[in-house]
């Protein structure tokens, strides 16, 4: 690996009276594809700009490979940035854009030419090298920005919402390419995005930020399957959010929760929760099975609720059902391809249906008002 | 078929320019090739006397002096206007600054020139102040020389340099400077390699907007100039009103017109050759 590790210690940033970052601390490993994910205004771009050196924090310390980096100006840091709007130099050709950092370093002509062509080849743009940025498509501009940053051989590549200006299909393709480039160059990538799909699909680890605070850091699976709190659960993917009172502790990691108008449901918990306290359960729609008939008895802690189908949204590979149970709407997704249930009674709008899930899939995210 | 209403819209301006610009220009051109009348005016007979007189050492000196004053003033103005315009365009108080730049126009041009006499004259504020605090024993002659003309010219025409620079810097994407810094450029390198080339159009406009009026200046050298700062504008006025050699005045005018037009064409060409052609844009979406 030719990357660098980054240690962020207690970094805070105030803009006037507004707190953009509130004493954030974490470590990014050498060679990692690390995403900073959060809604706009959560502080993720500010953090990226602090790492790049465009912004200095109000307090805290930043270490790149265990060296204090805050006193190093951006032009001498081992970081390079892919800007949200690409920030290509409009007066320079593709070739000269990519060659920019090498010309500053006074790299000899023959080596410069070889390097520029090597990196143009990496992003498949050799044929466009004499064009100007205004003559390129969005995807091509993106590639120039990548080549221009990578030719400088940074140890850390900072990507500030790099795909937000591209259309959905191109975004998918660029994402796959970015992942391939990351594997190839082996340096640390720090990827800022508000799009949870992007973050989940390519990252080694994801940090979820909100209001200048880190809500959770983990692998995409950890964040999706075991959200640390209600914010993360809501922000990442779709979820059902059920609040109730603990009625009974069933065994070491299951409790029975009394939900108003809905009845008692069992759920999984990691921590000890006192009987009588309020808890929130998050339940992914795809973990809920839906059927028109009473589901067969299953072993273990299983919840079955009867409700009325309020809405069905057909979207090709799956259907999304909105089922009204005891005054609340529960979302359930069902894939079409995997379920060959032709003999089954179809689920119809405005008719009764049964939803069913294993208690282990209902996850306690926070205990409110202890 | 769609009708193009362009000519209709352009008609009023075309009429205006034809009657008040093109026709007078032709008249001046014709006069420059005629013989001078005894009491002013011209005699309608072909002659090159007007142009022959241009090679008279006095006129050559005036032409060179004009070129020098216009060039030095124009360069000074662009150099002064660049940082000012940059600060204005990046400031949160843009509109206040714009107002401040425009406010001098509210006072009459001549009054502002005479105000400089009150400041720089032998009994002016500056001399009185310098004598008072003991830097000077006696007042110094600040006025009636080339430096005074350049100083007041720069003062007068500075807004014409600031405004085009301001508008091009305001459109300039500041993240390009961050990108340059990110790629290893220092502050000076990012200014010369990214900022200045990107606002080249504004710089060219600022040069044109200052050089052309200064090249034809009349009032400032007339009021504040001396023997070392004779300018072509002053020559034209003298030939027209005092010496009454209209063909000569017309030929000097033609010289001014040719020089400024050539300058405009050359700079416009330079500017166009440096701007990438957007016409052949790639089709969006064809990523690979």
> What is the CATH superfamily classification of the largest domain in chain A?
P-loop containing nucleotide triphosphate hydrolases
- Give the low-pLDDT segments of chain B: 277-288
Strand content of chain A: 35-45%
- Give the total of domains of chain B: 1
H/E series of chain B: HEEHHHHHHHHHHHH
The helix content of chain B, as a percent range, equals: 55-70%
Describe this structure in words.
The complex is a heterodimer of chains A (370) and B (288). By secondary structure, chain A is of the alpha+beta class. Chain A folds into two domains: 6-235, Rossmann fold (3-Layer(aba) Sandwich); 240-368, OB fold (Dihydrolipoamide Acetyltransferase, E2P). Chain A has helices at 44-52, 94-104, 109-122, 138-150, 168-185, 196-202, 220-225, 230-235; strands spanning 6-15, 18-28, 33-37, 59-64, 67-68, 79-82, 156-160, 188-193, 205-210, 213-218, 240-251, 254-259, 263-268, 278-283, 289-291, 302-314, 318-325, 328-335, 352-358, 363-368. In chain A, strands 6-7-8-3-9-10 form a six-stranded mixed beta sheet, with helices on both faces. In chain A, strands 13-12-11-14-20 form a five-stranded antiparallel beta sheet. In chain A, strand 11 (240-251) and strand 12 (254-259) form a beta hairpin. In chain A, helix 2 (94-104) crosses helix 3 and helix 3 crosses helix 4. In chain A, 43% of the residues are buried. The mean pLDDT of chain A is 89. Chain B has one domain (30-272): MetI-like fold, CATH 1.10.3720.10. Chain B is built from 13 helices and two strands, in the order H-E-E-H-H-H-H-H-H-H-H-H-H-H-H. Chain B has helices at residues 6-32, 49-52, 57-90, 94-102, 109-120, 125-132, 146-171, 175-182, 187-198, 200-215, 219-224, 232-241, 246-274, and strands at 35-36, 42-43. In chain B, strands 1-2 form a two-stranded antiparallel ribbon. In chain B, strand 1 (35-36) and strand 2 form a beta hairpin. Chain B is globular and about 70 Å long. At the A-B interface, strand 6, helix 2, helix 4 and helix 5 of A face helix 8 and helix 9 of B.
């Amino acid at each position: 690996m030719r990357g660098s590790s980054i240690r962020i210690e207690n970094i805070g940033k105030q803009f006037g009276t507004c707190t953009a970052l509130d004493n954030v601390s974490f470590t990014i490993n050498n060679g990692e594809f690390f995403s900073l994910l959060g809604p706009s205004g959560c502080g993720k771009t500010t953090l990226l700009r602090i790492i790049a050196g465009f912004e200095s924090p109000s307090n805290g310390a930043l270490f790149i490979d265990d060296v204090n980096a805050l006193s190093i100006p951006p032009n001498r840091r081992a970081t390079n940035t892919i800007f949200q709007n690409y920030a290509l130099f409009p007066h320079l050709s593709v070739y000269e854009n990519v060659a920019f950092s090498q010309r500053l370093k006074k790299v000899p002509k023959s080596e410069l030419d070889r390097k520029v062509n090597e990196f143009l080849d990496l992003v498949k743009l050799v044929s466009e090298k004499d064009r100007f940025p205004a003559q390129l498509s969005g995807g091509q501009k993106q590639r120039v920005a990548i080549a221009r940053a990578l030719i400088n051989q940074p140890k850390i590549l900072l990507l500030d919402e790099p795909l937000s200006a591209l259309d959905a299909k191109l975004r998918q393709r660029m994402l796959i390419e970015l992942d391939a480039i990351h594997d190839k160059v082996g340096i640390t990538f720090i990827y800022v995005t508000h799009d949870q799909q992007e973050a989940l699909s390519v990252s080694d680890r994801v940090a979820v930020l909100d209001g200048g605070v880190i809500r959770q850091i983990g692998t995409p699976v950890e964040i999706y399957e075991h959200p640390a709190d209600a914010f993360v659960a809501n922000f990442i993917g779709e979820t059902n959010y059920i609040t109730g009172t603990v009625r009974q502790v069933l065994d070491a990691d299951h409790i029975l929760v009394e939900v108003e108008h809905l009845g008692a449901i069992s759920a999984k918990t990691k921590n000890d929760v006192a009987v009588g306290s309020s808890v929130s359960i998050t339940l992914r729609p795809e973990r809920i099975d839906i059927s028109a008939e009473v589901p067969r008895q299953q072993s273990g802690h299983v919840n079955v609720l009867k409700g009325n189908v309020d809405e069905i949204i057909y979207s090709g590979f799956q259907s999304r059902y909105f089922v009204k149970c005891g005054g609340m709407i529960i979302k359930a997704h069902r894939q079409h391809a995997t379920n060959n249930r032709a003999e089954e009674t179809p689920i119809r709008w405005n008719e009764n249906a049964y939803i069913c899930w294993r208690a282990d899939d209902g996850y306690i995210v926070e205990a409110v008002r202890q | 078929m769609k009708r193009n209403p362009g000519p209709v819209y352009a008609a009023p301006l075309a009429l205006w320019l034809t009657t008040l610009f093109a026709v007078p220009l032709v008249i001046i051109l014709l006069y420059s090739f005629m013989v001078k009348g005894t009491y002013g005016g011209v005699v309608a007979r072909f002659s090159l006397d007007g142009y022959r007189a241009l090679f008279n050492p006095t006129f050559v000196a005036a032409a060179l002096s004009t070129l020098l004053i216009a060039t030095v003033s124009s360069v000074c103005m662009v150099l002064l206007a660049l940082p000012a315009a940059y600060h204005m365009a990046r400031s949160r108080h843009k509109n206040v600054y714009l107002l401040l730049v425009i406010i001098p126009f509210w006072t009459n041009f001549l009054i502002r020139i005479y105000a400089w006499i009150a400041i720089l004259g032998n009994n002016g504020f500056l001399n009185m102040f310098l004598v008072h605090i003991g830097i000077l024993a006696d007042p110094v002659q600040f006025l009636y020389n080339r430096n005074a003309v350049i100083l007041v010219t720069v003062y007068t025409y500075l807004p014409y340099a600031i405004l085009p620079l301001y508008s091009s810097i305001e459109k300039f994407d500041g993240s390009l400077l961050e990108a340059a810094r990110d790629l290893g450029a220092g502050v000076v390198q990012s200014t010369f390699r990214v900022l200045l080339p990107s606002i080249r159009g504004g710089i060219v406009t600022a040069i044109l907007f200052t050089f052309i009026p200064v090249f034809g200046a009349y009032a400032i050298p007339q009021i504040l100039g001396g023997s070392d700062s004779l300018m072509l504008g002053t020559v034209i006025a003298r030939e027209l009103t005092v010496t009454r050699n209209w063909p000569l005045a017309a030929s000097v005018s033609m010289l001014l017109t040719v020089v400024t037009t050539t300058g405009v064409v050359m700079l416009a060409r330079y500017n166009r050759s440096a701007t990438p052609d957007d016409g052949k844009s790639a089709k969006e979406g064809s990523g690979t």
